[in-house]
Design a protein that fits this description.
alpha/beta; six-stranded parallel sheet; binds zinc ion
């Protein structure tokens, strides 16, 4: 039996977007969903209680980073990632592939796996598809990822084809090595770059192996947005209707909407938490750089249409002051707002799907956000 079950509730008559639920060992996730990223077993500056208050149902952690520090064996000793970080809702871990391949000259790829040097102390390591699963089995997340290669953009056809075929072989090896399929759902990752026929080939090969869910990788790697949307349009219809689809590493408000309209159920991105620490807020009226002098005497909230803890209690002028003085509270307040903003956006998206008006919702949102 699979660890998770996807329930399709309805399809938006106006846009084709999917409204659903994913039943996991740690609760139910309403989809489409945005997943906050907690790279090192912490969503930077937020406590699990605060994440629950904003109704986050699932967070993401990074296998590569946790393997490096504090090590998966230590987390296993602690009783797994949920216990270690005191989070009793769902967790998804990536496979580490993306980080390892991002190391550039520090890594060497072979059929067996990837040899690389640590970004921390230069020590030598080797991750194979089996090792990536072993680490994720120790971490114990509800949803885990196959070890894959995310081809860069641009990349030529032959390279992408070879890379995706190896990714398929690695996915098969990972599935064979997976120890707890009844507790952890292993997803296959569709690659194939920007080539329609290669995306098709990748999806078909992975579905042949059969996974409880499918990720779409290799997007948002520098390609123009219309190309990303086109790849999604060509890829999601190939995937099974009764399983979740996860678009990896995508999380700007406009990309979330475009992805949902093209049939995606799950998203993650460091964007809301990373830009918060640089003093930038996502608002219903577009992005604002709180540091700017414009806000020096602005005693209104970050977003006049937001009901989060930060917006209920603090002004732009106060938060700007904190940012200027490098106060820790600035990061916490803006992170709280940015995460709330994206989680609320997805809640509104789900309601719009329910009411068959997602395209209208998108137009209204884009106009307000300054994209139309
Ligand atoms: Zn707010």
């Amino acid at each position: 039996m699979s660890a998770i079950r996807y329930e399709l509730i309805k399809t938006c008559k106006q846009s084709g977007a999917r409204l659903g639920k994913i039943h996991t060992p740690h609760g139910i996730i309403d989809t489409p969903i945005f997943m906050p990223v907690g790279t090192l077993a912490t969503v930077k500056s937020m406590t699990p209680e605060e994440l629950k208050e904003m109704d986050a149902r699932i967070i993401l952690s990074n296998t590569y980073h946790l393997y490096m520090r504090p090590g998966h064996k230590l987390i296993e000793k602690a009783g797994g990632l949920h216990k270690f970080m005191n989070w009793d809702r769902a967790i998804l871990t990536d496979s580490g592939g993306f980080q390892v391949f991002s190391l550039g000259p520090l890594r060497k790829i072979s059929e067996e796996g990837v040899e690389f040097r640590s970004h921390i102390d230069g020590s030598k390591h080797f991750i194979s598809p089996e090792k990536a699963i072993e680490i994720q089995n120790s971490l114990g997340a509800d949803i885990i990822m196959s070890f894959d290669e995310c081809a860069p953009y641009p990349a030529d056809y032959d390279y992408v084809k070879k890379s995706l075929e190896r990714t398929t072989r690695w996915a098969k090896r990972g599935k064979d090595a997976h120890k707890y399929p009844e507790k952890q759902a292993l997803f296959g990752i569709v690659q194939g770059g920007m080539y329609k026929d290669l995306r098709y080939q990748s999806a078909m090969e992975l579905m042949e192996i059969d996974f409880p869910g499918y990720s779409i990788g290799g997007l948002s790697v520098g390609e123009p947005k219309d190309i990303m949307n086109e790849v999604l349009e060509n890829t999601t219809p190939l995937l099974p209707k009764d399983k979740p689809r996860y678009l990896m590493g995508v999380g700007s408000p406009d990309d979330l909407l475009e992805g949902v309209i093209r049939g995606v159920d799950m998203f993650d991105c460091v964007l809301p938490t990373r830009i918060a620490r640089n003093g930038t807020a996502l608002t219903s009226l577009g992005k604002i750089v709180v540091r700017n002098a414009t806000y020096q005497e602005d005693f209104t909230p970050l977003d006049p249409n937001c009901s989060c803890y930060t917006c209920r209690n603090y002004s732009r002028a106060y938060i700007r002051h904190l940012v200027k003085c490098n106060e820790i509270l600035a990061s916490r307040l803006i992170t709280t707002h940015n995460l709330h903003f994206l989680l609320k956006l997805m809640e509104d998206v789900r309601e719009a799907i329910m009411n068959d008006r997602l395209l209208d919702f998108k137009n209204d949102f884009f106009r307000s956000y300054g994209l139309l």
